[in-house]
Specification:
The chain has 75 residues and is of the alpha+beta class. Helices cover 40% and strands 35% of the residues. The chain has one domain.
């Protein structure tokens, strides 16, 4: 099960919120999105598909590398 964790960071002298994913085993994948809705949908999708934290980095990297965004995971 994944949940989102929001975090405030300073980016180019501005405070912004970014969203991380946290698995119920405590594993955290940082800076998944700056968009809360996208992060929530991704967390829901990954939870439904029961994606292991071990495979999470590969799943997210595939989405980024293919420039498809995460919408493909969230439909």
């Amino acid at each position: 099960m994944y949940k989102i964790v929001d975090r405030r960071i300073t980016f180019e002298e501005e405070r912004v919120t970014v969203y991380d994913l946290q698995h119920n085993d405590g594993t955290i994948f940082e800076n998944v999105s700056a968009n809360r809705t996208e992060a929530e949908r991704l967390a829901e999708y990954l939870s439904e598909k029961d994606v292991s934290p071990i495979n999470l980095a590969d799943v997210l990297a595939d989405g980024i590398d293919n420039e498809i965004g995460f919408d493909i995971y969230c439909n």
